[in-house]
Amino acid sequence: MSLARRVLAETLGSLLLAATVIGSGIMAERMAAGNAALALLANTGATVAALAVLITLLAPISGAHFNPAVTLVLALRRQLGLKEAGLYVLAQVLGCCLGAVLAHAMFELPLLQVSTHVRTGPGQWLAEFVATAGLVLVILGVRRSRDAAWTVAAWIGAAYWFTASTSFANPAISLARSLTDTFTGIQPRDVPSFVLAEVLGALAALLTARFLFPTDAIHGIGRAPVATEERSATVQLSAEMKRQ
Amino acid sequence: MSLARRVLAETLGSLLLAATVIGSGIMAERMAAGNAALALLANTGATVAALAVLITLLAPISGAHFNPAVTLVLALRRQLGLKEAGLYVLAQVLGCCLGAVLAHAMFELPLLQVSTHVRTGPGQWLAEFVATAGLVLVILGVRRSRDAAWTVAAWIGAAYWFTASTSFANPAISLARSLTDTFTGIQPRDVPSFVLAEVLGALAALLTARFLFPTDAIHGIGRAPVATEERSATVQLSAEMKRQ
Amino acid sequence: MSLARRVLAETLGSLLLAATVIGSGIMAERMAAGNAALALLANTGATVAALAVLITLLAPISGAHFNPAVTLVLALRRQLGLKEAGLYVLAQVLGCCLGAVLAHAMFELPLLQVSTHVRTGPGQWLAEFVATAGLVLVILGVRRSRDAAWTVAAWIGAAYWFTASTSFANPAISLARSLTDTFTGIQPRDVPSFVLAEVLGALAALLTARFLFPTDAIHGIGRAPVATEERSATVQLSAEMKRQ
Amino acid sequence: MSLARRVLAETLGSLLLAATVIGSGIMAERMAAGNAALALLANTGATVAALAVLITLLAPISGAHFNPAVTLVLALRRQLGLKEAGLYVLAQVLGCCLGAVLAHAMFELPLLQVSTHVRTGPGQWLAEFVATAGLVLVILGVRRSRDAAWTVAAWIGAAYWFTASTSFANPAISLARSLTDTFTGIQPRDVPSFVLAEVLGALAALLTARFLFPTDAIHGIGRAPVATEERSATVQLSAEMKRQ
Q: Are A135 and D117 in contact (CB under 8 A)?
C-alpha cells in the first residue's frame, strides 16, 4: 500500500471523525433545549457510528489509527517505522483541525474559533488516562478480530459516559476541539494536561498488553483467531507488517 | 436474477425506506413534546435499523441501491448498464414517493402533501455534499464485506447528526420528502440544490475511491451480490497483498 | 430435536419476549416523567435487544418463532407439520400471557389486568399489515443468514416508530398486551382487528417472497450463503427440515 | 494460559465494568436534569457497550465471567476447578469494589461511600432472579458462538429496563454498588437478598440448560475460550443434528 495512500487515509479519516464529533455536538446542543444528557447521547451515537464506519473503511489501507497515541504505541512496538509514524501524526493533527473547520462551515459558524470550555482537574486527567489506556488495550487486543471496528467504537461510546472528561482519548482530537467554541470544545490551556494523560494512558496499556497478551504480541489476541479465513488474513497481515 | 425482480426489489426497498424515514419522523414529533433532539434521535434509530434490514434483505437481489446517486456512480463505473440504471432510478423515485403516501395513510394524514419546511443555504448544501460523498465512498469501499449493511446504515445515522442538513444524501428521498409537510419535509423549491449537492458529492467520492481503492480487486467489477463474492474477496485481498 | 424441547423453547422465548415488551413499558413510563417519546425509545431498545438475544439463543432449538403469524407461514410452506404448528401457537399464546403476568409480578402490580388502551382505526390496521408483512418477508429472506437475529430485531425496532400502531406484528403478543393496563396495553375489543391485519400481512409476505426469492424458497436467500461453514449449516438445516 | 494472567483479566474486567456502571450513572444523573429515564438510558448504553468490549477483549484469557454467579455455575458444571473458582470470585469482588473507587476518583467524589438507595421487596427479588437466570442461560447457550459478547451484553441492556430492579444480576456488582451513594447505589442491608435471588436464578438456569441444551457438545466441557471452539462447535452441531 503506497505511503501516500495511507497518509491520505489517515487524513481523511481524522477529518471526518473530528467533523462528526464536533458537528454532532453542535447539532445536538442546538436541538436539545438545554438538556445536556440528551445532547451527549446524540453526540455519543454519532461518534460511535462514524468511528466504526471509518475504521471498517480505512483499516485495510492505513490501519485506521486517527490517533497519535495509537500511532505512538504501534511505533514503540516496531509495527510502524519512525518516518511513517511522524507522517501519520501530522496527517491526524491536520485532518482533525480541518474537521473542526468543516463542521463550522456546515453549520455556518465562524470557521476559526478558540474554545472557552474549561476542562481541567485531577479527576478529568485520571479519566483521560483511563479512557486512553482502555482504548489502546482494546486496540492491541482485538484489532485483528473481525469485530474490531465496532468493539473499538463501543469503548469510546462507553467512555463518553463513564469518564468525567467525556473521553477525548486522542491528542489530535483534543487539539482540534480547542478550535471550536461549541458543545465539544476545550480551552487551549487545558489541552496539554489532557494530551499528557492520554500519552501516559497509552503507555500503561502497552505495558499491560505485554503481560495480558504476551506470546504473540504481533499476532493480536492471545490465542488463535476465530476462523480459517481469518487465520490466513492474520498471517497475511503479520507478514505484511514484517515487511514494513 | 431477472430484471423485473431486481426492479421490484429497488421499488419495495425505496418504498419501505421512505415510509420509515417519514413515518418515524411523524411519530417522533407527535410524541416528543416539542423536544427536537429527542424526535431526531428516534428518527435516526428507525432509519438506521430499517436501512440495515433492507440492505441485508435486498442486496442479494438488486444490490440495494435505493438511491439514484449510488446508481449513477455504479453506472459510471460500468457495473450497471444504462437501461438498468434508468429503470433503477425510476423505481427509486416511484418507491420513495409511494413510501411518503404510505406513511401518511398509516398516520391518517392527507395522502398528498407539499412540504413548507425551508432547508437551504450554503451550509446545508455543503452538508449534503459531505454526507453523500461519505455515503458513496463507504458503499464503494465496504459493499462486498460482510458488515456492509450495518456500516452503510451507520454512516447515515452519524450524518443525521453531524451534518447541518440532517443528511438526506439521496435524490429520491429528497424528492419524496418534499411530498410531506411533517418533521422530515423539505419544501419543493429547496430540492434541486440538495440534489445537485448530492450528485456532486457522489462524483467526488467516485474520484476519491479511484485513488484510495485503486485495484479493481478490492472494489469489484460486477454487480454481483455481497454473498457470493465474500470468499473470492478474501482471495483477492490476499493476492493483492502479495503483489505489494 | 425432541418436540417437547422445541415447545418449551417457544414457551420460554415467548414468555421472556412479552415480559420484556410489557415490563420495559412499565419501567419506561414510570421514569419518563410524561415524555412518551422517551418512554417508547426505552421500550424499543429493550424489545430489540431481548428479541435478538432470544432468537440467537433459541433458534437452534425451535426456530425461535414466538409468533403465530410466523408459524402459520412456515406451516403453509410445509416447513412445519400441522400438529407441531398447533403446539407452537399454543405455546406462544400461553408464553406471552405468562409474560404479562411475570411483568406485573416484578413491578408489584395486580397480576391479572384488562387493558383500556384504545388502539383502532384503518391507519393502525394498515400499520399492522405493513409491520407484519415486513417482518415475515425479512424472516423468510434472511433467516438462514448469520445476522438473522439482529436483522429481524432491527425491523421490529424500526417498525415501533414508523408505523402508527407501534408495530405489535404478532397475534400472541397482541393478545397478551390486552392483559396489561399499562404503557403497552391494547383494549381486548381492539385485538381481533389487529390479529386479522397481522395475518393478512403475513400472507402478503408469503406471496411476495415467492416472487422475490423464487428458486430456493426452502434454502433461504436467493443465492448461496455467505461462507463455507454457513453453507454446510444451511445444508444441515434444510436436511433437518426435510426430515420433519 | 497462566492462572495469574487469568485472574488479572477477571480483576481488570470487573474493575472496568463496575467503573462503567457506576461512573456512567454519576455522569448521566448529573446531566439529565432530573429525568430518570434519560439517565437510565445513558447508563444502559454505556454498560452494554463496555460489557461487550470487555467480553470480546478478555474472554480469550479468562472466559470473561466478571460475575460470581457465572463462576459458580461453571464450577458446578466442572468447567472450572474449585481453587480457580475461588480466585475468580475474589478477583471479581476486589475488581468491582476498586471500580467503584475509580469512578468516584474520576468524578472527584469521596472515594469511600455507603449507599442509602433502598432497593427491596419481592418484586425486585423476583426481578433479580429472572435477570440472572436469563443471563446465565444466555451465557450457557451462546458462549461459544461468534456473537456471544454482544448477545450477553444485549441481555443485560434489556434487563436494565424490563426488570423492576434494573438488573444487577451479579453479586460482585451488587456488593460494589453498595459502596456508592449515587444513581446506581443500593444500601448494604438490601444486598444479601439481591445476592440470594441472583444465586437462585443462576441455579435455575443451570437446570433449565440441562433440559434445553442436553448434549455437552453444544455447551462444551472445557474452559476453552470462545475463539478456538468456533470451528469445532460447527462440527459438533452438525454431528448432533445427524444423531437426532
A: no
Which chain C residues touch D213 with a CB distance below 8 Å? 61
| Structural domains in chain A plus CATH codes | 3-243 (1.20.1080.10)
CB atoms within 10 A of CB A55: 24
Whether the CB-CB separation of D24 and D107 falls below 8 Å is answered with no
Residues of D in contact with A231 (CB under 8 A): none
* Prediction ipTM score: 0.89
The closest CB to that of C5, out of D151, D161, D212, belongs to: D212
DSSP-assigned letters across all residues of A101-152: HHHHHHTT--SS--------SHHHHHHHHHHHHHHHHHHHHHTTSTTHHHHH
Who among B34, B37, B211 is closest to A39 (CB)? B37
Q: Following DSSP, what letter does each residue of chain B receive, concatenated?
A: --HHHHHHHHHHHHHHHHHHHHHHHHHHHHHTTT-HHHHHHHHHHHHHHHHHHHHHHHHHHH-----HHHHHHHHHTTSS-HHHHHHHHHHHHHHHHHHHHHHHHHTT--SS--------SHHHHHHHHHHHHHHHHHHHHHTTSTTHHHHHHHHHHHHHHHSTT-----HHHHHHHTT--STT---GGGHHHHHHHHHHHHHHHHHHHHHHS-SHHHH-SS---HHHHHHHHHHHHHHHHHH-
pLDDT tens-digit map of B187-209: 999 999 999 999 999 999 999 99
C-alpha cell recorded at residue B229:
463474492
Nearest to B162 among A23, A31, A41 (CB): A23
* Residue D21 with chain A: CB contacts under 8 Å: 162
Which amino acid is it at B195? V
pLDDT string in tens for chain A (244-residue length): 699 999 999 999 999 999 999 999 999 999 999 999 999 999 999 999 999 999 999 999 999 999 999 999 999 999 999 999 999 999 999 999 999 999 999 999 999 999 999 999 999 999 999 999 999 999 999 988 889 999 999 999 999 999 999 999 999 999 999 999 999 999 999 999 999 999 999 999 999 999 999 865 444 333 333 333 333 333 333 333 333 3
Residues of C in contact with D35 (CB under 8 A): 31-33, 35, 38
Q: Which of D45, D56, D108 sits opposite A147 (nearest CB)?
A: D56
Instruction: Tell me which chains share at least 3 CB pairs under 8 Å with chain A.
Output: B, D
Cβ D49–A157 below 8 Å, yes or no? yes
Q: Where are the alpha helices (DSSP H) in C107-170?
A: 122-142, 148-162
Q: Report the distance separating Cα B96 and Cα B66, nearest Å.
A: 8
- CB-based contact A57 B158, cutoff 8 Å: no
Contact assessment for residue C71 and residue C92, using Cβ atoms and an 8 Å cutoff: yes
